[in-house]
Amino acid sequence: RSSSEGLKIAYVEVDSLMTQYDFAKDYSVTLQKKSNNARNTLTQKGNALQAAMNNFQQKINNNGFQSREQAASVQNAIQRQQNDLQELQARLENELATETAKFNEALRDSLQNFLKDYNADKKFDLILSKAGDNILLGASRLDITQDVINGLNKRYKPAKKSEASSEDKKTEDKK
């Protein structure tokens, strides 16, 4: 190839990839469910803690404890409950962050492996990711987003659905 041809460049719209690549859509649903479950768990435990604190305060106001020791014991239990809630929140946030990082890595690997094969005959010198306005202007002929999404979706085999259906069958067999 002569140097007068210049670079052969393409780009992929990341936003479109995230909303149209089945793997990204499936994982997004999974992450959203985990996030909602964590939030619901924390809300329930937070409400229980608030109720315990309100109950404790009401007993203090109404001299409902038989001794200072009993009041201190309840107060210590509430403090442990509060500490447990903070530890649970940190653990759930960490789990979600780990799961999100795992997704991002899997997405990057999937995309890079696909592009390596895709580019074997396309021979692009450079394939850019377009996110937001990091590419201010690009000719539409350089946009390979739909090709990439179609190719990725063709390769994507949702493992969890087949595992889940076989698990459902096992459960049904036991009934």
Your description of this structure?
Helix 1 runs parallel beside helix 4 (145-155). Mean pLDDT is 88; it is low at 162-175. The longest helix has 55 residues, at 68-122. With 175 residues, the chain is mainly alpha-helical. The protein has helices at 14-20, 22-61, 68-122, 145-155, 159-174; strands at 9-13, 126-130. The termini are far apart. Strands 1-2 form a two-stranded parallel ribbon. The radius of gyration is 27 Å and the shape is rod-shaped.
Give structural attributes.
175 residues, mainly alpha, 5 helices, rod-shaped, disordered C terminus
The fraction of residues assigned to DSSP E strands is 5-15%
N-C termini distance: 67 Å
- What letter string, H or E per element, gives the SSE order? EHHHEHH
Sheet with most strands = 2 strands, parallel
What is the number of strand segments? 2
Could you report the average pLDDT, rounded to the nearest whole number? 88
How many distinct helices? 5
Query: How are the strands of the largest sheet arranged?
Result: 1-2
Q: Unreliable runs, pLDDT <50, ≥5 residues?
A: 162-175
Q: Which class of secondary structure composition applies to the elements?
A: mainly alpha
Q: Helix proportion of residues, in percent?
A: over 70%
